[in-house]
Amino acid sequence: MPDPPPGRKTPPFRSCLKPAAESLTGLAVVLEGLASLLNLAPVLPPLLPNVVVAGGYALAVLVAAWRMSRAPQGRVGVRLARLRARQAAVAAFLYRLAGGRRDERGWRVVLRLVLVAAAVTGGWAFVRWAERADLGTCGHPVQVRLAVPVEQWAALTDLAARYERERAGSSGCARVRVAVERAPAPAELTRAAQDGWIDEPGAEGVHRPLVAVHPDLIVTAHAEHLAELVADRETLLSAANLGTIATSPLVVAVTPKVAEGLTQTDKRESLERLRSLLGGRLARPRGDLSESGLVATDALYPPAEIGKDPNGDAGNLNDINAELGLSPAGVPLSDAVDLLCHARQELADGEDPALAMVVPEHLALTFARMPECGEPEPGAAVSSFYPPSLPVLAYDLVHLRWRAQQSYERERWTEDLAAWLAAAGDRLEDEHRLRRADGGFRSVSTPVADVVAPGEVNVRALQDRIARAHPRTSFAIALDASGSMADQDALGRSALELAKSAARDLLGRLQEGRDEAAVLTFSAAAPGARLPGDTFRELDQAVERVRTTGSDLRLDRALDQAARRLADSGRERILVLLTDGGGAGALPPEPSPRRDFTVLALLTGGGDCGELRERLLQEGDACHRIAPSDDPADVVHEELIKLWLTAGP
Asked: What pLDDT, in 10s, does the model give residues 430-441?
């Protein structure tokens, strides 16, 4: 091979370094674009472009050194000359194939670009192969935490499982796990966000999170309100609204018995006319426990009276009446899912509950196969009406970044999941009947327009109004656990079972953060044993575990023990006495001294309210005997109406 022509100058080092470094920097940009285009973000490391740039500068040094050593010097010079000769031969061959102008230097550039492209393509193919092959043993998958409202639980749980399967390799190794958790109820979410997701100290003196773990993503119909709540909180780095992933208008869903009387009614009838036709038989989930119930409040409450203070007594009493009217006795109202599952179970048992319910459209459309209600009921159905005044729920996806909890892997998979959910609109529609982000359906036919636009909702104003419709109350529930409570009525129900049912229904109607409650059992063996629990849910579980023990305790002593548990916090103070009335020695020999709280006595056995009023109760107290044919939930509902209307705001 001939040596290079003598006298050719070697380019300076810096003039070789700069163009080489710029070329490789451009290659890094190309790689970054390819990663985004080919959806390789979850596979490639985050600093890959920077690594390529740094490596490019290092390689540029080597290129410059090679260029400087082009003059023939021993074996190295001979080998380089041979290499250049081979490149020239290949370039000549390409020239002959192309039939173009003979320019070996240009064809060398083309050849080098082809080799670079082949190297990039081969590297990309290797990465994809390694991803599919799952080289090595399965490591620990990254966990991404997703909090969703209960009305979206089935849809998002299903999507999370699909996402995990799609992101797993062919060998089944899971690289990411999505922990789907129920987002706190609206009232609880407000407290959680304001307190950094940490509750007040419990009975054991320790803090516990309101949410099991801090969510990376949360689906909510109140994204703007959430952003206001978490602003400037030390526990959060940021809360970014990633946009709406689905919508669902609120509808009035009616069971078949109610639908029979509405056959001539327009599906778009006004809410006022519809309520008149229903005769007041309308239920909606509680506004403090359900997003759908909260959003529906403004349309269901009476309008504020012109010229009157909205915080005045008249407005509050109107709202109290409206709230209690939307809470029929014996119907679970914690959320729309519980409400619809109750109706479906009644229909499956052959008893139409004759209910009209304000629920999200997608739950009404999937009523027969809601997984939360158990096995599908093919024959179960509800009819939906679309009053224009009922708002639309827009479910936004919010990305929460927590201080001292961020890592690249967690952030990478969180962003990947968010992008995947944003593109899952067709699945949400086809399988769960949720509308697209623009409010429309692609293939589902409904009585409303193709597109239903979400409206603005002032969450804080709605929460304030619901709060004014529910007077602050401090309850002490005294539950008789003496041996006589085991006696059964004509229907085979023990007095203790009826008392526990009434206590649990009462706890279910209280509001966390607004009401207070303590539950204690009493008997001669254990006079005034307080049940453990810091939340109404925990107290409910403790009541379920109560068993009879010991003999009767005098009721005035039981009241004294329970009165010590009534918090003196400016709330209306009510002591609920649940007993069968006891034996001959259960009443005090003389009337009880004056008390500064109200007593509501619910008799679940053979006791007599007349004797109780004479010897134990005072003016303003109430007594109600639960007969064998009575439903304890109906009795509790009736008495709460009286108590709250009396208590006022």
From this structure: 889 898 888 777
